Amino acid sequence: MIIDDSRAMRSILRRIVTGLDFETTEAEHGQAALDQMNAGVVPDVCLVDWNMPVMDGYTFITQVRANPEWRDVTLMMVTTESEQRNIVRALAAGAHEYVIKPFTPDAIVEKLSLLGLVPAETEQGAWA
Amino acid sequence: MNVLTFFEASPDEADAPTVDDLQAVTEDVWLALVGEDEVLVPRMVPPGTPFDATGVWSSSVTVSGGWAGVVTVELDEGVAQQLSARMLALPEGEPVADGDIADAVGELVNMVGGNVKSLMPGPSVLSLPAVAAGRAAFASDVAEVCRLDLAWRGAPVRICIHVPA
After folding, report:
1. A91 to chain B, minimum CA–CA distance in Å?
2. Which Pfam families does the entry mention (chain B) (predicted)?
3. Contact at 8 Å (CB) between B112 and A102?
4. Cβ contact (<8 Å) for A8 and B115?
5. Which of A36, B24, B89, B113 is deepest in the core (most CB within 10 A)?
6. How far apart are CA A6 and CA B159, in angstroms?
7. Which H or E run contains B110?
8. Taking a C-beta distance cutoff of 8 angstroms, is the pair A97, A47 a contact?
9. Chain B contact for A38, CB < 8 A?
10. % chain A with pLDDT above 90
11. Helices H / strands E in chain A, number of each
């Protein structure tokens, strides 16, 4: 699930992860993502922006982690928010990985690989 | 014990990023969004010169907290359209809806502004982007402290930082 208020950024991330054979769904803010999850769309991994209207990414992470049924959902922040204290906050709240915009496709693939979500043979160039 | 904090930086260091900082941030963002094949080129524009595009898209974000400032991007309309098309992977020459341009230009300033924020003393908060079809307007109680004039495909791009006067 790609959660970002920018359609353009969702498009960029979608192209990267569909190149890795992920199926995607999208949400324009944290509340829309929670609504989908409550309706039964529970993804393997969420790519989460921080700075969004309605519900920001940090709040979304705390909400997901408050529900034991979603404990297997992997959460990866993809955001311009790069203050050390906020990175620590997000990781402490339950994010597994953190990518700072701007990023390269390689950075996303590398993080997904570290999380065990990308087979080694597709780590390079799959999105090209 | 002698503890160094952000607040011991000289006033100049604490006021605003340098033009070199802003250029590095902008080039990194542009590279990520557009790719390596067409880079931004610096332009020599005298201070006080109005942004010289006929059609303009502008966007800004505000940083508040440990550092306060406004980061603004102004783009020639054609640049804004082409940037949006690149970000959305639309075929070259396909018309781009205004809403898609606003979205892409907003994400551009979000990324530039977020990285500017990371250069300055914190903790700070980044606003959501404000986007307009037209020139940016600035409040009377802010002063420009950093301006970067660039060109992409021969058309102008301007990035500015304003801080409270």
Report:
1. 17
2. CheX (PF13690)
3. no
4. no
5. B113
6. 20
7. helix B98-119
8. no
9. no
10. 91
11. 5, 5
| Residue B37: φ, ψ to 5° | -75, -30
Q: Which CATH architecture has domain B19-43+54-164?
A: 3-Layer(aba) Sandwich (3.40)
Q: Are strands B124-126 and B56-65 parallel, antiparallel or unpaired?
A: antiparallel
- Distance, in Å, from the CA atom of B109 to the CA atom of A51, rounded to the nearest integer, reads 13
Minimal CA separation from B48 to chain A, in Å: 30
> Does the CA dihedral A78-A81-A83-A89 come out positive or negative?
negative
pLDDT in tens, A37-67: 999 999 999 999 999 999 999 999 999 999 9
CA-nearest of B50, B160, B34 to B107 is B34
From chain B, the residues in CB contact with A85 under 8 A are: 122-123
Chain A closest CA to B34's CA: distance in Å? 11
Please tell me the pTM assigned to this model: 0.91
User: Is residue B92 within 8 Å of residue B83, measured between CB atoms?
Assistant: no
By C-alpha distance, the chain A residue nearest B61 is: A51
Residue type at position A1? M
Per-residue pLDDT of chain B (165 residues; tens, 9 = 90+): 333 322 333 334 457 899 999 999 999 999 999 988 889 999 999 988 989 888 999 999 999 999 999 999 999 999 999 999 999 999 878 899 999 999 999 999 999 999 999 999 989 999 999 999 988 888 888 999 999 999 999 999 999 999 998
| For residue B95, cis peptide bond before it (omega within 30 degrees of 0) | no
* Predicted-complex ipTM score: 0.91
